[in-house]
Amino acid sequence: MEPCSEDPHLRRASWLLGLTSLLLSVCSTGAKSPGAQGSGAHVPLQKIQGASVLFHVTKEPGAELEEVSWGFGPESNYRVLLKVHPGTDAPTWISLQDKYQQRVHVPNMTSLRIENLTSEDSGQYRARISFVGGIECTQVFPLIIYEPVPPPQILLGSPSIAAGWCNVTLECRASEDTEDLNVTWESRGLEHRVTPGPAPNPWTLAVSLPLSQPSPSLSCVVSNQVDQKTATLGLGEVCAHGSHGQAVAGPLQGILWAVVIMLFFLGIGLYVWKTCKKKKNMETEQGRLHFSFLAQITPLFHWNLGSLSPSFCCSGVSPAEGMAGVNMALGSE
After folding, report:
1. In angstroms, what CA-CA distances link 245 with 2, 163, 250, 255?
2. Do the beta carbons of residue 83 and residue 112 sit within 8 Å?
3. Which residue numbers delimit the Ig-like domain (predicted)?
């Protein structure tokens, strides 16, 4: 019996099926690479403003690329930015040149690099890969851009000393909105007891430190997904100042009361002195007024030396009235 000859159509179909499986495996392999996803869940790349990001298409060795187009936007409505073809040094721009052209570089046919990232660059980037033979697949690169973490500072409440413990409240404060920020407290050389009560605000920390503990420190760490900043405060001097303040509080209070009493009596003495001075001035003014009144009385008459005849004068008094006054005066003598 002669062996069966192989059908050439069947052999061609098997070859096409193998090529299709190879290309599909390329897309599925690319979906497993970091930052690139196929039809599965999209794991975003996270970058900080001003940084750069590199998207890289993965493919099976030997797979021949015909074209790679890069787009931006959701699957239902995205825009093609540029296309890359084999043997060309520069990409072919399709849209959004004003936004991306100065910041986008294409190191090779399977890579795209974006520099000086801004918050507007957040979104989904898509690489549509066309292979020789008409097979296509898409790899998705989700990208999230975060702002840098603002430098925090630690604000210190007034410490209090009780039973050998220093009680103080610390607040970690950032200069910008803290909605998307996380805060943690880190300690070094610190043994503190927890203050009872409801769950505290994570930005505020109440601690009780033993006075015998040497120079502990606390750090406030503010972070987001891509950046973090730290502020550190040494508590040794803080509690030392609080203890010293408590030691001198009694003497200072006594001195303060003594000063208040002294000022009170000084005020009373000043009031009495001013009252006496005012009364003395009033008596002096009355004496001057009496003397002025006597000095202004005009003589009732005077002798005219030229005629040796008496001439009478008085302010506002007639001569007859003046004479009558003289007669009365002489009669009384």
Report:
1. 112, 15, 10, 15
2. no
3. 142-232
Query: Measured between alpha carbons, how far is 36 from 28 in angstroms, rounded to an integer?
Result: 10
* C-alpha–C-alpha distance, residues 78 and 71, integer Å: 6
Compute the distance between CA of residue 301 and CA of residue 25 in angstroms, rounded to an integer: 149
CA distances in angstroms from 310 to 87, 301, 306, listed in the order given: 150, 7, 10
CA-CA distance, 57 to 110, in Å (whole number)?
5
Residue type, 4: C
CATH fold of 26-146: Immunoglobulin-like (2.60.40)
| pLDDT for 19 | 46
Which residues, other chains included, contact 317 with Cβ-Cβ below 8 Å and sequence gap of 6+?
300, 325
The percent of residues in the chain predicted with pLDDT above 90, rounded, is: 28
State the pLDDT at residue 245. Answer: 43
153-247 has which CATH code? 2.60.40.10
With tokens 């690099």, the residue in question is 113
Six token digits for residue 180: 């998307």
d(CA 120, CA 42) in angstroms, rounded, equals 19
26-146 and 153-247, same CATH topology: yes
Range 192-199, long-range pairs (CB < 8 A, 24+ positions) = 193/165
Work out the number of other CB atoms within 10 angstroms of the CB of residue 172: 25
- Alpha carbon distance 89, 103 (integer Å): 17
User: Residue 87 — φ and ψ, nearest 5°?
Assistant: 80, 5
Domain spans in the chain, listed from the N-terminal domain onward? 26-146, 153-247, 301-332
